[in-house]
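Good morning N.,

You mentioned wanting to compare the apo and holo forms, so I went ahead and generated the holo version with calcium ion. This is what I fed in:
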Amino acid sequence: LVFSAVSAICAPLASWNDGPAKQAIETFVKKVTDPDGKDFVSPEQRIAVFDNDGTLWVEQPMYTQLAFALDRVRQLAPQHPEWQENPLLKAAIEGDMKTLAASGDKGLLELVTVTHAGMSPAAFQQIVTDWLASAEHPRFKRRYTDLVYQPMLEVLAYLRENGFTTYVVSGGGIEFMRAWSDRVYGILPAQVVGSSIKTRFEIVDGKPTLIRLPEVNFIDDGAGKPVGINEHIGQRPIAAFGNSDGDLQMLQWTSTGAGPRLGMIVHHTDAEREYAYDRNSHFGRLDKAMDLAPAEGWVLIDMKNDWKDVFPAAK
Amino acid sequence: LVFSAVSAICAPLASWNDGPAKQAIETFVKKVTDPDGKDFVSPEQRIAVFDNDGTLWVEQPMYTQLAFALDRVRQLAPQHPEWQENPLLKAAIEGDMKTLAASGDKGLLELVTVTHAGMSPAAFQQIVTDWLASAEHPRFKRRYTDLVYQPMLEVLAYLRENGFTTYVVSGGGIEFMRAWSDRVYGILPAQVVGSSIKTRFEIVDGKPTLIRLPEVNFIDDGAGKPVGINEHIGQRPIAAFGNSDGDLQMLQWTSTGAGPRLGMIVHHTDAEREYAYDRNSHFGRLDKAMDLAPAEGWVLIDMKNDWKDVFPAAK
Ligand SMILES: [Ca+2]
Ligand SMILES: [Ca+2]
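and this is what came out, ligand included:
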């Protein structure tokens, strides 16, 4: 009752134009919450998973976490003259994006281990929080946490008002996202699934401590997403939102179960208000998942036509 | 308001005798839930973690999951004549506990990979569910899921009624526990942290599938418990319940934060109604954590004197 009242006052999905995408969300939610319907799903089974980069916030001209890693390399470089001998780190310091891009996933991973390890998870989150408080997106000149998609914030709220538990399931770093997911998305640390480096518990000067190690623990992308979902959530979601081929297996896994399922793909079609990209993008490539969408029943969200606003209004 | 009413009707902690243990729980909960007190903790920070074997259910004469693995080896043995060539599996088939015990953790792990892998998590949980429906504890002649500690069920309910989220954090298998944790403890799959084997996503005959692999992924015991807590929960708990040295680091990690903390240890002192064991037990050895308890402020629960009943009444 309380939830219904709130939802009525706040006009759910207010930033969505009427159209097939908005309708797909509303129809699905009505189905699974109707206690008299054949498609009713009990609240503890109402699990919805959301990719992060390009689904909940901007991922161009590069992943925000990569922008963070590059800033961090530059900030720490004066204390590490030896980094000048490392071609990758030298490229990062000098902003040589061509060399960085050519280094591929391996280079990205090396950047992450150099910049994300050696401290506790709490200390790392503080570093992320401090960076987010000052870093600015190169095109929009706003904080990265302001460049979240207003219509998707409304989907998160709408689903939670209807008894869903919402999870982020991202290839991004789990602790990087936990630093702000509660504040920005209303998603608690325990509901964040992501890639991780290993962590070790030890007693340092008599004090119990967790230390982040420069070693990959888990890559929560592609076929890793259903694995991460199983490990953290232990139930199959009934709704999944993604934007790239990295979400393909998560969409497949979510769509396979019995009963109604919702699979949606944010299609970046709005070069004016945000970006337009799909099959040929370096970040957030959408190709195979788009081809499979019609047969699988996944609904594309056409950013340009489905969204009244893209970002929250500037304060 | 609803919660308070339920709690008043059900008389929280009804199976606890008045004494320091019951008092420690009640005092702690009153402190952290008093909105006007200096020790108030917001609901999303009220995280309580519970070891499973020996803390929530019986672990003698052997871990229940080991009893399951042995039954499973015996059940599958006719299809695997080659197991007769393997001394460990032969010992399991013949119930030769001496050889099994001598094989140590390495042997235990081999038993687990042989019996727990090769199927989907859902299929594995069904196997566990079927086993629990018929297996009987050798001494009490009851289902294992009936041999949970009634006073601890009351602690779980009492904490949840007071806005806590309760987690199981166990060295036992995460999927083994998820098969029944909701039904028996009211703890959803996403709130179960445990040891795991690796899982792989693949498309089998066109169907998205998760397969459990015979390879260890994570051991959630000892120094692994704070690591598992960090990975799954992403917040430091404010209350921890354990019963052995495998919970030592979880207790240390929980006790270190600012503000009020509750650390409790179930001490098995009741040979008549359950078992009496601590420093010399093969399963659930309690030695170092007991020595450190007074200085750390951890409260021992004296099963014999603190608990009116041990198990729920037989139906
Ligand atoms: Ca993405
Ligand atoms: Ca235990």
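Strands of chain B lie at 47-50, 165-173, 192-204, 207-218, 239-242, 262-269, 276-277, 299-302.

Happy to go through it together on a call whenever suits you.

Best,
F.
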